[in-house]
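# nightly structure sweep
# worker-07 picked up a monomer target from the shared queue
# config: single-sequence mode, recycle default, output format = structure tokens
# input follows
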Amino acid sequence: MLEEERFDGMLLQFAQQCQGIDPLLDTVFSFLRRKTDFFTGATDDKAKQTVLKMLEKHQLLADKTNVEKRKRRDAEEAAAAERKAAAKAKRDAKKAAEASAAPAAPAPAPPKDVVEVGAGGADLDGAAPSSGGDAKDDDDDDKEPPPPGNGGVMGWGVWTQQLADLELKVPMPSTTKSRDLVVKFTKGHITIGVKGQPPILDGDLHKKVIVDDCFWTLEDAPGADGGKEVVVALQKEDKQSWWKCVVVGDPEINTQKVQPENSKLSDLDGETRMTVEKMMFDQRQKAMGKPTADEQGKQDVLEKFMKQHPEMDFSKAKFS
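# output follows
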């Protein structure tokens, strides 16, 4: 473990309890004010210079890390494009070879006084089955859309991934507090749930993670419904492979279709993100016993119709 990482475990727990950058920094400076002479032992300029010096140092390190990540991502995208081009060239060559193949010569007509053995329907020329079906399968695979965020929408929530890490978002009711949650992860297992209730997610991980680099937070979910979500960051032990699923037994994605440039939910295009967020909204609504977006839309249409037709009696009507 690097020297700068030796306090990560303690600091991650501290950050989770603060639930935000502003509260975290406020707590740190409060400690310096109350328990040290940071503000009183030197001039105001000295304290500011010390803070700015540390800020500039780590800003430079962060910029350097981001540049390296972009270089790796560009290299991964270039390699993926080369693999895709090579696969397409192979399929095109196969189709061209099939198209240029000469048709088989027709069999000579048998004499009238000879009974044709194949007349009952047997295949006499021994022709091999056409490979057109394989080509069609390849075309079907090409038309398969990439998984959203390189992950998917599960019954327990949504997951996305980059080559080095994963992000899980598990919807929770609006009244949920951090102290109400049970979030545990080991090298090969994860559990997420509410105390006193069956876990929402509990299973063996698809691959191993670096436990010391994994953390979770409870955040406000996007949208106006007031729900919350547990956001879990998992650092892959093998940072050179894509995961097919989060836990063993979940539906698997086609890792040949991943798109490194869309590796987080926040990076998705507008239409895909709206679809994923709608699914997450529906999951939160179901968790709180409320109607989904589609169900709410139907109720609104029904209520509008009832207001427009007060002369009609709906008291005994049944709706599904």
